[in-house]
Amino acid sequence: MAEGGGDSSFDTWLVDKLDALGLDAEVYGGYVTGIMGDEDNPQEERIESVIEILSGAAEEDNDLGEFRSALNERWDMKVEHEEKEKEAAKAAKQKEMDSKKEEERRQVEEADKARRAKADKRVQRSAEEQAERARLLGEYGYDSDPVDEEGNPLPPEEGGDGEGGSSAGDSLGEAYGKNLNKERVREEVAAKREAIKKTHHATALQNKIALEADKMRKEMAKNARKTTKGERKR
């Protein structure tokens, strides 16, 4: 039959009723559902229009009074069923949207947490680097002594009495000793770099010699195969 709406029970009921009235359900079912679905008019007027159409087509002895009241009740049930389906679909969509928003919020929180952790790690690394620098400075004595732009200790200010002069002389000697420590460290670093450079050069040379030897062996083997092949032809 024609389209009947959301509730299939209404369609089944309508087919049975039209058959009982001796009417073709395929034809008149479409009229009924079409008229009842026109919500621009009050439901009572729609029912009256349906009754007029069916009265003109049904046999005269058919009483449509029962059909009228049943149609009103069944249509109300159909509309209520469709409204519930719409509400359920709306609730499901809202739930999906809420779930999506929650997932987005969770991702934002995780990203923010990762950024904070990265920042904390950077601060911790900076603190560790500062501590290591302080340790090195403390070990070589440059943590509290005034230094110039090159990192060399500055001589103490002149002036003061004999005792002060003696203290200044001691500080100057200590500063020069620390400067010697700094030069020694630089020399050790330079020596290590030179040793690494020599080791790398030696390794590269050995690799080159090995490649040349391998290339020579392959060439000799190739020549030997050519010689053997020539002797076989003769």
Task: Write out key terms for the chains shown.
single chain; 234 residues; mainly alpha; 80% helix; elongated; CCDC43
Short recap of the structure:
The chain has 234 residues and is mostly helical. It is built from five helices and no strands.
Q: Please trace the helix and strand order, writing H or E for each element.
A: HHHHH
What multimeric state do the chains show?
single chain
Dominant shape: elongated
What is the number of helical segments per DSSP (H or I, 4+ residues)?
A: 5
Percent of residues in beta strands: under 5%
Major sheet characteristics? none
3D architecture notes:
With 234 residues, this protein is mostly helical. The chain has a domain of 95 residues. Helices cover 80% and strands 0% of the residues. It has 5 helices and no strands. α1 packs across α2, α1 packs antiparallel against α4 and α2 runs antiparallel to α3. The N terminus is likely disordered.
Write the layout of secondary structure elements.
Elements: H1 8-20, H2 25-36, H3 43-57, H4 65-140, H5 162-233
Helix pairs in contact: 1-2, 1-4, 2-3
